[in-house]
Design brief:
The complex is a heterodimer of chains A (about 425) and B (about 230). Chain A has three domains: about 200 residues, no CATH class; about 60 residues, no CATH class; about 130 residues, no CATH class. In chain A, α1 packs across α11 and α2 packs across α11. In chain A, about 55% of the residues lie in helices and about 15% in strands. Chain A is elongated, with a radius of gyration of 34 Å. Chain A is of the alpha+beta class. Chain A is built from 13 helices and 13 strands. In chain A, the strands form two sheets. In chain A, strands 3, 4, 5, 6, 7, 8, 9, 10 and 11 form a nine-stranded mixed beta sheet that branches. In chain A, strands 2-12-1-13 form a four-stranded antiparallel beta sheet. Chain B has one domain: Rossmann fold (3-Layer(aba) Sandwich). The longest helix of chain B is centred in the last third of the chain and has 16 residues. The chains are: A alpha+beta (about 425), B alpha/beta (about 230). Chains A and B meet through α1, α10, α11 and α13 of A and α2 and α3 of B.
Amino acid sequence: MKPRDLLRLIWANLVRMRGRVVMTGMGVLIGTAAIIVLIALATGLQQSTMGGLSDFGPINQITVLPGAYMQAFGGEGAGFRSDAILTPKKLEGFSRIDGVVTVTPVEQFLGSKTLRFNRLVGSSSILGIDPRAVRDMGIEMERGSDRLNRDTVIVGARVAETFADPRRRESGAENAPDLFGQTLTLEMTRTNDEDRDETRIVKLRVGGVLKERGGQDDNSIFLDIDTFEDLNAWSTGKRVDRRALGYSQAILIVNDPKLMLQIESSLITNEGFYAYSARSTLAALNMIFAIIQAVFGGIGAIALIVAAIGIANTMVMSILERTREIGLMKAVGATNRDVMSIFIGEAGAIGVLGGIGGVVFGIAVSKVIDLIAMAYINAELAASGATSSGGAESIAVIPLWLPIFAVAFALVIGLISGIYPALRAVQLNPVTALKYE
Amino acid sequence: MARRKQASFITIRDLKRIFKLGDTLVRAVDGLDIDVAEGEFLCLMGPSGSGKTTLLNMIGGLDRPDEGVITVNGQTITELDENALAVYRRQQVGFVFQSFNLIATMNALDNVKFPMIFAGVSEVERDERARDLLGQVGLGHRMHHKPTELSGGEQQRVSLARSMINRPKILLGDEPTGNLDTRTGTEIMEIIQRLNQQGHTIVIVTHDPRVSTYATRTVHMLDGQIVADNAAPL
């Protein structure tokens, strides 16, 4: 039998029993639509979550913290070691790991400070990094140079936005001053041994502005680590011995993505450090969302499996009714394979038709859910007076693979549910089938 | 009338078919031997349960014997597997049944074309051949009618056209006039006789003595065996 003839015959048979096909197909439609809607919601959840967390920072960075840091957070027993300390010697060792381009310590200024630019007051973090590492970090400059020295700093892309006049409380991109080439004033305060407040003022010239790169860097002012150590020593009253106590954080730049996760997990499991990167965080989150999608999809699939039983039932009934016809097919020379193909084909076609209907219906339902949910969310936002940047994203997102997968799944379900009825048809004895009343 | 050829076209030796009905064994065909020449018009007669339909079904490859050998046109069909037997049914035999067995949802033309689907004949040729055959049985004007819109005689003519569509050498009929009145029965038998004259080998099972008048040979069966045969010696 030619494929075209087979398809025509299947179609003619479906048209013949259309009432039942429609009802059986409805079962498949509902199952498929459930899969579409549930996975669309899971995907929407993933996208809005991931979209909200887009500030994971640059993709080629691994941030390393001493093992003691995690122990302090109850990470004991998970392999974090208190002797995992970020000493200069250790950092030197990190830089020799295969795939590591450069390593820099990162220290954040924790003393009491005020940042000023003319009358404006800013609220950025002040970080000390190794000036030799800056070039290799792949940092892109919006303006100026990436050179750091005693009195020159680099500022993140959004540092300017943090500056505002304290009396007018206006900040944001439109009021942001142009800091490039300007001099910021760092006003540090400490309490001395006689319980008296002392103030020291340091001038910092902005030698470069970073391109926006996501993460904490955008809101940070970068200082040469030596300058930083001096300021820190003045502010805290003592100089930290890094060779004994180590830095509080280090950043490794790895330019081979394939080595990223490997280096990261080696730092954790082999050396007892705590390490994280945008890549591993994303990987972990994606894993969670994949599980959510699978669970949601599985719930939809149950509906489809119920529908499969409906298809099998319809086909068995149809074979009973068409017993004589099956006898006739055999008498006029249809092979068992022909008979199999016809009945499995009919079941598969019910699956596909229901599947296509389900995709259309599922997409429509997703859009309706989206409209209602977005209207609700935007109304809530408006009521709470929040000015969300661009409003919330979609609640239900249908990735391109989903409709294709759903129809294919419905087809497979249909084909499988046709096997048993088709086998029954094949096993009919043509002599008795032709006499069946 | 076609001249009977002297070689055997259908050869049956020691054929046995036993059915189990509850606890009893029914010997539907019980050690039967027969030779049918090409172009013969054989009429199988006998009371109900004499095994004539069972014999017909086995010749047509719809049923398999428990013992014995059937050779048709040099091919031992009792040795064929399911697939080869389907091909045999498709190429070598055409069936007509007492109750026509037309597909109710298809019109006459599609019913006639139906067997050619499994033979892989092209759509154009299917249409041509089916129209031609329907014309030959006098239904050229009614080919778009559904079986329910046709009389019994017309339905059996559609069924005859269908049986001939793959150009088989053998026509097998199981009471083809059983559901028809005398006049339409006669019309059908005349068509079958014409097919015989064109060279087809015909085997018809019937209760009706008038049918046997068209045959070149009549065999009477009883209890699965031949009890009378008016054949000329091969």
